Amino acid sequence: MLAFSSQGVFSKKYREGIRRPVYWEYIFEDSMNVIANAPHVAARIYRNVFKGGEQVVLKNNNDLVGNFVNLLGFNDPQFMEFMRLYVLLLSDSGGDIGGYVSHLVGSTLSDPYLCYSAALNSLASPLYGNASAKFMKLLQLIESQLPPNEISSKPVLTNWAQNYIQEGNLVPGFGHSYLKGDDPRVVMFCDYARKHLPQNMKFKLATQLHQIVPDLLRKTKNTNNPQPNIASINGLILHHYGLTEETFYPVVLGLTQSIGVLSNLILSRHYELPIIYPIS
Fold it and tell me: Among 7, 139, 142, 196, which is least packed by CB within 10 angstroms?
C-alpha cells in the first residue's frame, strides 16, 4: 500500500496549502481509493505466494467482497456469503491495535496510505494478526496428540488443556483486552458455523475448548476476561471453505480493517483532532 502513496491526493493538496477544515475531504478521497484497491492487492499477494503467480481475471464484476473472493480463485457462493459476514463483523476496528496505530500515525497528518500501512504492520505479530493461525496450530497439535476417540471426551481434553497451560504455554484465541463478557462477534461466527458446518471436526473441537479453557485460565492466569475471541473461530471457518494457507489470514484481516481504521481517520481529520504524543 505504501507504493500507492505517490498517487495520494491529500499529500499533494497539503503541499499546495489547503486549509485545515478541508483536510478530511482529501483524506476521504484517498481512503476510498485505498479500500477499493486493497482487495486487488491482497488477492495478487495470495496468487503470487501460493498459486505460482497465476492471476484470476474477473469475468463478472461483483461487490467488493465478491470480487476479492473471485480474485483469490474461489467461486463457492457460500464462502462468498461468509466473507461478507466476516468483513461486516471485523471491519469496525477503531478500538483495536490496528485502529490505534492508524490513529496515532494519522495524528501527524500522514495520508491514508501511510496510516493503513502502519495498521497492517501491527498485524504481523503472534498476539494479534497471527492469533487465528496460532489457534489453528493448537487444534492441529491436539489432533496429533490425542486419539480421535478421545478428543470428544471433555475430561480428557480438560486434562490436556490444563497440562498445556501449566507448562507455561499461551493459549491463542482466548482473552479480550476491553470486552468484559462474551464477544458478540464470536457468538455470531459460532451461530454461523453451527448452521453451515456442524459436522466440521475442528469446529467441534473449538466448541469444546470454548467451554473448557476460560475456567482453566481463571484458575491459573491473571486474566480479566478469558472468554474466546474471534481468533478461536474465524480461521477454522476460512479453513473449512478451502483457504488453508494460515499465513495469509493476517492479510484477510488487514483487508477488512481498511474500512474501520480509515473511517476513523476521516473523522479525526474532520474534527481536527491534535497530534498525539506519549503523554497525551
Answer: 7
Instruction: Using alpha carbons, list the distances in angstroms from residue 70 to 59, 64, 180, 197, 275.
Output: 9, 10, 38, 22, 40
Write out pLDDT tens, residues 29-83. 999 999 999 999 999 999 999 999 999 988 778 899 999 999 999 999 999 999 9
Rounded to two decimals, the pTM is 0.92
Write down the pLDDT at residue 95: 60
What's the distance, CA 34 to chain centroid? Answer: 17
Which are the contacts of 231, defined by CB distance < 8 A and separation ≥ 6? 131, 132, 134, 135, 172, 173
Q: Where are the domains of the chain?
A: 2-75+90-125+246-270, 131-240
**What fold does the segment set 2-75+90-125+246-270 form as a domain?**
Citrate Synthase; domain 1 (1.10.580)
> What CATH architecture does domain 131-240 belong to?
Orthogonal Bundle (1.10)
